[in-house]
């Protein structure tokens, strides 16, 4: 597979619930791919060929819209 500049220049990647094919394509140095987690918001940060499990903020589409349109709303 040719080295594509759009992937070669990124220093890190965040992947969550991706297929083995997608993992191999986006994080080939961090092989093998960890088993996907069933926990919402759980993903992997890939840096320097190593995958680190991380917890992210889980937001629905509606939560994101509210957060972006009314950032002063403390309930969102």
Q: How would you briefly describe this protein structure?
A:
The chain is α+β, with helices and mostly antiparallel strands and 76 residues long.
Helix/strand structural class = alpha+beta
Strand content: 15-25%
Can you summarize the main beta sheet? Answer: 3 strands, antiparallel
- Poorly predicted regions: none
Q: Give the ordered list of helices and strands.
A: HEHEEH
Q: Please tell me how large the radius of gyration is.
A: 16 Å
Instruction: Write down how many β-strands occur, each being a DSSP E stretch of 2 or more residues.
Output: 3
Mean pLDDT across the residues is 81
Bulk shape: elongated
- The first-to-last residue Cα distance is 44 Å
* Percentage of residues assigned to helices: 25-40%
Total number of helices: 3
Order of the strands making up the biggest sheet: 1-2-3
């Amino acid at each position: 597979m040719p080295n594509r500049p759009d992937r070669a220049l990124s220093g890190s990647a965040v992947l969550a619930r991706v297929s083995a094919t997608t993992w191999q394509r986006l994080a080939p140095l961090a092989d093998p791919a960890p088993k996907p987690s069933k926990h919402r918001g759980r993903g992997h940060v890939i840096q320097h060929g190593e995958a680190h499990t991380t917890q992210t903020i889980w937001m629905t589409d509606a939560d994101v819209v509210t957060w972006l349109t009314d950032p002063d709303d403390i309930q969102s």
